[in-house]
Write a structure and sequence with these properties.
The chain is of the alpha/beta class and 322 residues long. It has a domain at 96-291. The protein is 52% helix and 15% strand. It has helices spanning 3-23, 27-44, 49-59, 65-92, 107-114, 130-139, 154-164, 178-186, 218-226, 263-280, 298-321; strands at 102-105, 120-124, 145-148, 170-173, 190-194, 204-208, 211-215, 230-237, 244-252. Strands 1-9-8-2-5-3-4 form a 7-stranded mixed β-sheet, sandwiched between helices. A two-stranded antiparallel sheet has the order 6-7. A hairpin with a 6-residue loop joins strand 8 and strand 9.
């Protein structure tokens, strides 16, 4: 066995042992441990501290340093508890008791789309517990085809894929999945995509949380080419562990829209949906993620900055006039 595979397998065993320990621990205790780990990660070890603080400073310029620190600690609590919820999901969530853990909001919109004779593109972000949402969607009888990047560790990848597909969710690899996606849409299937992954300098740049961010153009193209409506879903924690609200934030249907949108306009639309849910529960977003990587030339960045500033100024004038 190659040295890397040995290391990967050892890491896999450690992770599985950790997950088994979490599964044997009551969720109430997991919440207490998550609170301690959040304090440890944020206040003591300061893991990705500069990045998180920078992200929060740009997104919420009115917050004081102490307020940003508290928000960052709550964010770490969410991330730690999210892992515990994923570990407990197969044992806690079933088709007979899901309603004790999940409240639905406007979900009839998604059901109508899923039962229709058209393809559907479901969008979600690194917000709330999106892994449990994928698990529950399949459990409720609405399996999706989800595009995800394979993990570098093959043993962990196989284990995570087993969890994701346990209730009918079908995972498509991020690379080389175009023919499969086309087939899914042609057969009126439901495609689920994380919409807030960095697309690099060649992506579609729109403003997200007061800064330019790059989005994959393919998401908009999928909808425009197939006529599939875009449905933005979220699953946010509403109280203690494993207590969620599963809702529809918005829908864009190219077949019924008053005005057809281009790639940039569609991208801007679902970006606004994501920003709305993040601003309602900011501690449940992945601020540890370097979402705003911008490696474009300085002139291009400055030009984009000026354009976005002009758009904000125009929007403010329109709001005052209204």
């Amino acid at each position: 066995m190659r040295p890397k595979l040995v290391v990967d397998y050892v890491v896999y065993l450690i992770v599985r042992l950790f997950i088994c320990t979490v599964q044997a621990t009551p969720l109430s205790v997991c919440a207490q441990v998550s609170s301690f780990l959040a304090w440890l990660a944020n206040d003591v070890l300061k893991i990705r501290g500069k990045l998180v603080d920078s992200n929060l400073k740009h997104a919420f310029p009115d917050l004081s340093p102490s307020q940003r620190k508290k928000l960052a600690r709550r964010n770490w609590y969410h991330l730690c508890l999210m892992v515990c919820e994923i570990a407990h999901a197969p044992r806690k969530l079933h088709d007979t008791n899901w309603h004790k853990h999940i409240k639905m909001k406007d979900i009839h919109i998604q059901i109508e789309q899923a039962l229709g004779r058209r393809p559907v593109v479901v969008l979600l972000g690194h917000f709330g517990n999106f892994e449990v949402m994928g698990y529950c969607t399949g459990m409720l009888g609405f399996p999706t085809y989800t595009v995800a990047r394979p993990l570098d560790n093959p043993f962990l990848h196989r284990w995570l894929e087993e969890f994701r597909s346990a209730t009918g969710q079908i995972i498509l690899p991020k690379q080389g999945s175009a023919p499969y996606i086309e087939q899914v849409l042609d057969q009126n299937g439901t495609l689920a995509l994380l919409c807030d992954q960095n697309a690099g300098r060649k992506g579609c740049w729109v403003e997200f949380m007061n800064r330019p961010a790059s989005y994959h153009k393919a998401i908009s193209v999928f909808s425009m080419a197939s006529g599939a409506p875009l449905v933005f879903l979220y699953m946010r924690r509403t109280g203690g562990p494993m207590q969620f609200e599963f809702g529809v934030e918005g829908i864009y249907d190219p077949a019924t829209a008053d005005e057809q949108k281009g790639v940039k306009e569609v991208t801007q639309w679902y970006n606004e949906m994501l920003e709305r849910v993040v601003r309602r529960d900011p501690e449940q977003y992945w601020w540890v993620h370097n979402r705003w990587k911008d490696d474009r030339p300085a002139k291009k960045r400055e030009k984009e900055k000026q354009r976005l500033a002009a758009e904000r100024k125009e929007a403010a004038k329109l709001a005052q006039a209204a």
